[in-house]
Design a protein that fits this description.
Blueprint (H helix, E strand, L loop, with lengths): L13 E7 L6 H15 L3 E7 L6 H11 L3 E6 L5 H11 L4 E4 L11 H9 L4 E8 L5 H17 L8 E8 H8 L8 H8 L3 E7 L12 H15 L2 H31 L6 H34 L6 E6 L2 E4 L9
Parallel strand pairs: 1-2, 1-4, 2-3, 5-7
Antiparallel strand pairs: 3-8, 4-6, 5-6, 8-9
Helix pairs in contact: 5-8, 9-10
Length: about 325
């Protein structure tokens, strides 16, 4: 649990959680639409913005909003921690009974919240938004994401819904369980799925980005995919073992062929090219297996060091900044 936390005695009904990195172009419109949805509820709410060390005017705009609107809370991280850790920081500061996680680029419309609340009133602890279409993404990105979600689902021991991001509404008890998870390489949507309880899908059409550029280029998507696979599956280790068994069996067959040729044919197989092909193939398989093991060992090393997941430099609420260092200890 965090050393520093919200001091609110009255708990809001809903917390809107929006991690932001260089979103100055879209932030005013995002705030307008989120505030309109919050006002329509007729109940107390808060808007938690997380500034992931933006280099544009995102933070000054956030500070201005917190000064004008007492429902706005701004977390300013000490450095760029990345989307998943920025989400984790925000989750530690959300004080609402229900938490809506969404991106600030308006590809995920906040206007879906009333329907999500209805589904939660019917007994769901998690309402995740499942993408029916995503016209704002390129064909290559849509294909890559489709392959990734299905590949992850096939490997993971935890059922993870297809075509879903972090846009979801979670209950307070789900949040409390997530806060107890100490892993550094975080895959929030997988962690929410792992918790269990009743989880309900809400189909929607994902909008195009309102303004600015995507903060998830292809290489970051690949990194997120790797984190998701390694964090929620040990099957790659098993696949590496199976690959070793298969190629060991192939080596035995090749050895038998060589001995047969030497004993009964009177000559050994000729050909430098074929020999090098076998050596190269075996070497590449060994490196592949070592790479998989290295991914798991590297994450174990980072986890054992026990450094804070994130550091919050400033918390802005109602225009005042309180400098705090929030240490997230391993094990919660």
């Amino acid at each position: 649990m965090p050393v520093c936390s919200s001091e609110n005695t009255s708990r809001p009904f809903v917390s809107f959680l929006l991690p932001c990195y260089n979103e100055a172009e879209v932030l005013p419109e995002t705030y307008r639409r989120v505030k309109a949805v919050g006002d329509s509820l007729g109940r107390a709410y808060e808007i938690v913005f997380v500034n992931d060390c933006s280099s544009d005017d995102t933070l000054p705009q956030m500070i201005q909003l917190s000064g004008d609107d007492p429902s706005v809370v701004v977390l300013d991280l000490s450095r760029n921690h990345g989307h998943q850790l920025a989400l984790s920081a925000g989750l530690h500061y959300c004080s609402g009974d229900r938490i809506l996680i969404m991106d600030a680029d308006l590809q995920d419309p906040p206007e879906l919240l009333p329907r999500m609340l209805e589904l939660m009133d019917e007994g769901a602890d998690v309402v995740y938004a499942q993408r029916r279409s995503r016209p704002g993404d390129s064909i290559l990105k849509r294909i890559a994401c489709s392959i990734f979600y299905r590949f992850l689902r096939g490997l993971s021991e935890t059922p993870i819904p297809l075509d879903t991001g972090d846009f979801r509404l979670i209950s307070r008890r789900v949040l409390e369980l997530i806060l107890q998870m100490p892993e550094r390489h975080r895959f929030i949507r997988g962690m929410v799925s792992w918790v269990g309880f009743r989880q309900t899908a809400l189909l929607y059409d994902r909008d195009s980005r309102f303004a600015g550029v995507t903060k998830y280029p292809f290489w970051r998507l690949m990194r997120l995919a790797l984190d998701g696979i390694v964090a929620f599956s040990t099957r790659p280790l098993a696949l590496a073992s199976y690959a070793g068994i298969v190629f060991a069996a192939g080596s035995v067959v090749l050895l038998c062929y060589i001995l047969y040729s030497w004993l009964y044919v009177g000559k050994t197989p000729q050909g430098w090219a074929s020999l090098m092909m076998v050596v190269t193939l075996m070497g590449s398989i060994q490196l592949f297996v070592l790479g998989i093991i290295g991914q798991y060992l590297g994450r174990m090393h980072e986890q054992v060091r026990g450094r804070p997941l994130f550091i919050v430099r400033n918390v802005y609420r109602e225009g005042s900044a309180a400098i705090k260092t929030c240490r997230e200890e391993a094990g919660g």
